[in-house]
Design a protein that fits this description.
heterodimer; A: about 675 residues; ABC transporter involved in vitamin B12 uptake, BtuC; about 75% helix; globular; B: about 325 residues; alpha/beta; Rossmann fold; seven-stranded mixed β-sheet; transmembrane (chain A); ABC_BtuC-like (chain A); cell membrane (chain A); transmembrane transporter activity (chain A); transmembrane helix (chain A)
């Protein structure tokens, strides 16, 4: 338990964990030294008392705290990543699993807008808000009895919910965006050592708890039953792991900003080079995380090329290629996630639900045409059509295309999500996970910022090019392994992290005031006109037969690769085709409505919670739900605070996430 | 498709400009990003989708019929607010409500390129539209842009004479401030203007193309930093201030007056900043005058001058 890095009791030669640990420790020490060298040098060669005093200050109060903060935060992220991945048995769980970053972002905003909090603003406030967000997610997941899948889903839903709330606040009070965006790039600057010494105290509880959890967590990796078999109390260990990891994440986010990507990458790197034992994995993840973060920070400080190249961007730039190379070499050999589902005991009938969804959609659309700043009864619709009411015609001309775009885009994103979750067999899969959304968003946004007058066809072409190029890279990297689910997910995740960071860099690079770009990134139907709907429709129509054709083979795929192959299915081909379809659907939607959150990620689960499992049923239901949700978001976003517009991308999450959480908690009671 | 003219077209093909497609004032090509071919002359019902446009319309005596975020205007600009009390709300600056704009039946919509470029066609389906772009061409500053823009907007609403009067008043006001500084022997001092953001000791510093830089030149002050940036600001931390000897720092707050300068500068790094030690850091109340028009510039000039005169005499 104490021997964190020793693998065997009496090693004849150093174990791989120990050897690696030593190498990593030396590397990190060298990195830190390189970072501190100029100031250290100045300290020893200073002439005169004034110069020496200034050099001392620079070293002890500015440089050293920054390097130590980077090391500590990176190590905390790395350890938190390893912990969360062990607890959820999902290798793509990130330190941010329970929405700590979103909570901390709320903290940044609170610190700005509530003067009473000025005394605690800065890291303490961010720490508390991060913990608060995680507590919320943990409660929603079912408290200390939460299963891994519930943790993942509830965490994801809560993070989306908080982010959505934050987006609404920022859309209304956009002058706060600039500060928040700057913080999001990483906030390692320490204006003195005091903040660090204070924050170090928060690290104590998780560090004390860790040794007691090691054995239990090691056993958990074998599965709940096996762990119970050797006398490990599964629930307390899991709960302890979650709380510890959350505290570590909150510490790191408060100190360094939202750079949790480090914690996602570090354990996967180590697994890829063959580290298996949890104890070694944890210790080495901490070391690797710290090293990665100060390397990235050092690169940023040394190059000081531009404001856009922040620590967060550099981290993604450093970490992603390494991870990709490892995936390509086939070294990322984590145990496959069975892609178990948020099951509900019930089964529903498509013959009842599909017509109900259709009726609901038509009713909602009709309501959307009528409701808004001005109430437009159907009599005025007729007057508008006959040309006798130009004002009504103008307003309907604003409302109707938005609703049409919402219906089409909602269906496309939901279909994309269903297909991806089946192919990747991971509950967290969605167009966002594969990097397709981020790829499309990156190219589109870069295009829009470079050529503000860019027309619709160009936008479309750029989004498709970005999304499909991402997919092409993922497929190329995973071709040899026949597109096995886990490497595909890992590759996609690496790309999504990289592209999200690059998008952020592009925004900061082009403008100090990122309000406009950030609101585009939330996604929405604002200002969309008929040509947008017309541009989107063919992509949906063409994909419908393909979806119908793929639904049966996708059912077989859920039985497992071997079973599917035994039934005569070309698994590799099926995966490639399905991924391609999902990518086309998602990129086309992103081109028009931006990366709308929640729809692609959670509507597939929603369809399952309602009681549909086979793809032939689940696809249409998820698509109906996606359309319904997006239209509702469009209408509420336009009308609720009129004339103030709330981005639909924030509302899809604000409406969808609570419903999703409620369904989950109901399912839990039903199961017991 | 309606014919529209972009600023880039103007720059590439000067011919188009000289053949008189631009119905507005002569300097329009510097400031117009994209505009409808036909504009009303003069416009009477204008919708302004950015604070500084509303401020300028108020300054030339034709307040808009609708503007973005009127509730936030008094807190962030607060200049000429009394002339904008009754203006209709058309939503946020980034995503104004098209329905609210349409209902006002405007005859001119004024927006800005960096927010509304993708919305031009939608706006134009409601009313003639001009999207403005006031990034200054070196060596001009945003103060110069603000003056030209206000003159141009005065032209749109048929109030060029009033616009020129307002310009002259602001210029005279700034000159008075310069006189006060010269009298107290404060001319030639070096000015640094910061905008507070969230995050520990992290700020925007206004650069050489900013409105503050333009003011410094007119006030007879030197300005730091010497470099220009795309939007008049770049990030800066308290560490960067350590090396700046002998300058006056103006910190524009983002919080209410209940958070004092002492609270904002309690970090170890701030405590060593030469300007703070010399009592030369002034806190200016929350505003975005640096992104405003001439009236905002005058207000900023008054504040900077007051705070400079309050600082201890140079030793």
């Amino acid at each position: 338990m104490i021997a964190l890095t020793v693998d065997r009791p009496a090693p004849a030669r150093a174990s791989p964990g120990l050897r690696l640990g030593l190498i990593a420790a030396v590397l990190v020490a060298l990195l830190a030294l390189a970072r501190l060298w100029p100031t250290l040098h100045a300290l020893t060669t200073a002439h005169g008392p004034a110069e020496a005093e200034a050099a001392r200050f620079l070293f002890w109060e500015l440089r050293l705290p920054r390097v130590l903060a980077g090391l500590a935060a990176g190590a905390a992220f790395g350890a938190a990543g390893a912990l969360f991945q062990a607890v959820t048995r999902n290798p793509i769980a990130a330190p941010d699993l329970l929405g700590v970053t979103a909570g901390a972002q709320v903290g940044v905003l609170l610190g700005l807008t509530v003067p009473a909090l000025a005394a605690v603003s800065g890291p303490p406030l961010l720490f508390l808000c991060g913990l608060g967000a995680a507590a919320l997610a943990l409660t929603a997941a079912g408290g200390w009895r939460a299963s891994p899948l519930r943790l993942l889903l509830a965490g994801g839903a809560c993070a989306l919910l908080l982010n959505a709330g934050l987006t609404v606040a920022l859309a209304l009070f956009e002058q706060n965006i600039a500060g928040l965006a700057l913080w999001s790039g990483g906030a390692l600057y320490q204006p003195g050592a005091a903040g660090l010494t204070e924050a170090a105290l928060w690290l104590l509880p998780p560090l004390v708890a860790l040794p007691f959890l090691l054995r239990g967590l090691e056993a958990l990796s074998l599965g709940d039953d096996a762990a119970t078999g050797i006398g490990v109390a599964v629930l307390p260990v899991r709960f302890g792991g979650v709380v510890t990891a959350t505290a570590l994440t909150a510490f790191a986010v408060a100190l360094a900003g939202p750079i949790g990507f480090v914690g996602l990458i570090a354990p996967n790197l180590l697994r890829a080079v063959g580290i298996r034992r949890f104890g070694s994995l944890l210790a080495l993840s901490a070391l690797t995380g710290g090293g990665l973060l100060i390397a990235a920070d050092g690169a940023v400080a040394a190059l000081s090329l531009s404001a856009g190249l922040s620590t967060a961007v550099a981290t993604a730039l450093v970490g992603t290629p390494i991870l990709l190379v490892l995936v390509m070499r086939g070294r990322a050999l984590t145990p496959p996630d069975r892609g178990e589902v948020a099951a509900s005991g019930r089964a529903a009938s498509l013959a009842v639900v599909a017509p109900a969804l259709l009726v609901a959609l038509v009713a909602l659309a009709a309501f959307g045409l009528a409701w808004g700043e001005t109430w437009l009864p159907p009599t005025r619709w007729i007057a508008a059509l006959t040309g006798s009411d130009p004002e009504a015609a103008l307003i309907l001309g604003i409302r109707a295309p938005r609703i049409a775009v919402a219906v089409i885009a909602g269906m496309m994103l939901a279909a994309s999500g269903v297909v991806l979750q089946s192919v990747v067999r991971n509950a967290l899969a969605g167009p966002e996970l594969l990097g397709v959304t981020q790829g499309a968003a990156l190219t589109t946004l870069a295009g829009l910022l470079a050529w503000p007058l860019m027309g619709r066809p160009e936008t479309f072409a750029l989004a498709l090019a970005g999304g499909l190029a991402t997919l092409g890279l993922i497929l190329a990297i995973n071709r040899r392994r026949r597109f096995a689910p886990l490497p595909v997910a890992l590759t996609g995740l690496a790309f999504s992290g990289l592209f999200a960071a690059l998008t952020y860099a592009v925004i900061v690079e082009t403008s100090a005031q990122p309000a406009r770009a950030l609101i585009w990134l939330v996604g929405g139907t604002y200002g969309r006109a008929w040509p947008d709907a017309v541009a989107l429709l063919p992509w949906l129509l063409v994909s419908l037969p393909a979806l119908a054709f793929l639904s049966r083979p996708l059912d077989l795929l859920t039985l497992g690769d071997d079973a599917a192959a035994g039934l005569g299915l070309d698994v590799g081909l099926l995966r490639a085709l399905a991924l391609g379809l999902a990518a086309v659907l998602a990129s086309a939607a992103v081109a028009i409505v931006g990366p709308l959150a929640f729809v692609g990620l959670l509507t597939p689960h929603l369809a399952r919670l309602v009681g549909f499992h086979a793809h032939g049923d689940r696809l249409p239901v998820a698509m109906g739900l996606g359309a319904l949700l997006t239209v509702a978001a469009d209408i509420v976003g336009r009308g609720a605070l009129a004339p103030t517009e709330i981005p639909a991308g924030a509302l899809t999450a604000l409406i969808g996430a609570p419903y999703f959480l409620w369904l989950m908690s109901r399912g839990r009671k039903g199961a017991r | 498709m309606m014919f529209s003219v972009s600023r880039r077209n103007f720059l590439v093909g000067g011919l188009a400009a000289s053949t008189g497609l631009a119905a507005g004032p002569a300097r329009a090509s510097d400031l117009v990003f994209r505009r409808s071919a036909v504009l009303p002359a003069p416009a009477r019902r204008v919708v302004a989708l950015e604070f500084l446009l509303a401020e300028m319309l108020a300054a030339v005596g034709v307040p808009p019929v609708g503007m973005s975020d009127p509730a936030l205007y008094p807190g962030w600009i607060g200049v000429l607010s009394e002339r904008l009390k009754d203006v209709a709300d058309v939503g946020t600056r980034q995503q104004p409500s098209l329905e609210a704009i349409a209902r006002l039946k405007p005859d001119l919509i004024l927006g800005v390129s960096y927010r509304h470029a993708p919305l031009f066609d939608v706006f134009e389906s409601i009313a003639p539209t001009v999207l403005l772009d006031f990034a200054p061409v070196p060596p001009a500053t945003r103060l110069d842009s603000a003056f030209s823009l206000q003159t141009m907007i005065g032209g749109f609403v048929g109030q060029r004479a009033q616009a020129e009067r307002a310009d002259a008043e602001v210029s005279a006001g700034i000159a008075r401030d310069a006189g006060r500084l010269a009298e107290a022997g404060r001319s030639g001092r070096r000015l640094v203007v910061l905008q507070e953001l969230s995050g520990q000791d992290t700020y925007w510093v206004f650069t050489a193309d900013s409105l503050s830089a333009g003011l410094a030149a007119r006030l007879g002050l030197r300005f730091w930093p010497p470099d220009r940036s795309r939007e008049g600001v770049r990030p800066l931390t308290s560490e960067d201030l350590l090396a700046l000897d002998d300058c006056d720092v103006m910190l524009v707050s983002t919080t209410g007056p209940d958070v004092t300068l002492a609270t904002k500068t309690r970090s170890a790094a701030w405590q060593r900043v030469p300007a703070l030690r010399a009592g030369r850091v002034g806190l200016i109340e929350r505003n975005i005058w640096n992104f405003g028009g001439p009236a905002s510039a005058l207000r900023l000039s008054n504040r900077i001058t007051d705070l400079l005169l309050r600082a201890p005499a140079a030793g």
